[in-house]
Amino acid sequence: MISIHEEDYQIFLGLYTALSRTKSSVRVQYIKILEAQKYFFRNAITPVDLERKAKNLELLDDALHKFYLGSYALEQLWAVQNYLKYSVHKNPNFDSNLTYQQDEITFLLAAIFDQVLYSWRSFLDFYLKYLLFFLTGNYIVTISTGKFRKEITNYINKEPNDKKAELVYDYIRKNVLSKTFDNQTDSWGDLLRDLRDKTAHKKLIKPTIIENKNNQGVMIAWPTIKGLNYSELAQRSFENSAFEMLIKLFPILYEMEWVPGPYKEGMFNQRN
After folding, report:
1. pLDDT at 154 over 90
2. In 3D, which of 68, 71, 73 has the Cα closest to residue 113?
3. Residue ranges of the domains in the chain?
């Protein structure tokens, strides 16, 4: 019989392994974006006061931390899915009764997916707050899509020569929140907000169940949304789309092209 300390170790080991995977793929991009902002301010034609620089860095760091949390939750979701579908490693406390543990599987996937939704929704809110302050100097403690749209459009109307703010708002309006802002087809941000708000405040998500056998021949009932299981949906619609947003807005915000690969000291100096 496994002791409670051994179980604690297994839980810790799994969570730490997920963190190590996330760190190796996400943290390097996190640092690169922070350093790009610092470089931009150091070389800005119009000087920016120290207090505003510090606030911008704080807000960007907060937003990227939320991205990190979203990626960490998604890594756990992928681990559960991949174990259930492909693993050849046997867990005697689980695999022997896998066929009879569908309720536990469903709960586990739903619990992690709920954290995924929370983290990515939080990232989007924090990043909108950062963008608004970076572009306009207007700091709003509790951001909303309505406040963001009102403040950024007011600023654009007052400062029609500030094309940076116009380009950023145009990207968000067309590629992130197209239904919210223009009543067009859902973008990824609209889907994210809808799912998170629904499960947090209205009712539990009712996924479509698709049954498939894993590589051991055990039938697994996979919860799906829009034909995708939870990890696939979160990967394609949330993490990939959020990262694409960071890359697309990078040259607009910092006036330099995105450089693939990890951050290296002096890499932005070499672009001049």
Report:
1. yes
2. 73
3. 4-263
Kindly report the pTM of this predicted structure: 0.90
Q: How confident is the model at residue 62 (pLDDT cuts 50, 70, 90)?
A: very high
Residue 70: strand pairing partners: none
**Residue 135: closest CA among 108, 110, 159, 104:** 159
